[in-house]
Amino acid sequence: MDVDMVNEADILADMKAQMDQADNESSMNVDAPVFTPLSAIELNDGEKSERRVQVPTHRMTPLKQQWLKIYTPLVEHMKLQVRMNLHTRKVELKTSEFTTDVGALQRGADFLKAFMLGFDVDDALALLRLDDLFIDTFDVNDVKMLKGDHLSRAIGRIAGKGGRTKFTIENVTRTRVVIADSKIHILGSFRNIRVARNAICQLILGSPPGKVYGNMRSVASRMSERF
Hints:
alpha+beta, Ribosomal Protein S8, Chain: A, domain 1, 3-stranded antiparallel beta sheet, 12 helices, RNA binding, RNA-binding, nucleus, KH-I_PNO1_first
């Protein structure tokens, strides 16, 4: 019985050695295939994809002023076709035969949406360069139902005197915050957005800014130690 098991093991070892030798010889004789990268149009079976981003009325003038800074990265770096449709008041994006990045169209749309929400062009450009950036939007009334002067005071606590509180939240959490009426837009990574959102919610609920600053700094220090 033991002899049969030994013979079977020897046979399996010889077969494995022969197969390995055959694989090595075939890999030496056959060159590895080289695949050229496909363009976005080829991946979509030759059809061009489109995106349309609505331009709010209050962002039309900033769009005209910053059009060159918006147009250049989309065309030169993302290889997209861009035009402004004045009849529909929308910015239209389309892939071209030079578009190689499959996610270029979605990134370009996210970049334009961030600008329409009120972010600076330089801040919104980070959406084109980095993968782990997001935009979180919520309403003050989602945290606490406020009306009239109570709502105005809550927004004032978030902004601070001369925007000081908002700047502090942005610097500590490494995010960008836009306050549009009762809407709050936060641009940053997932973890940083969560810290900034918690700080803003505490301000809406009535916490003093000093206490919120302390909580933010402690959370930011723990996050830096973790990484």
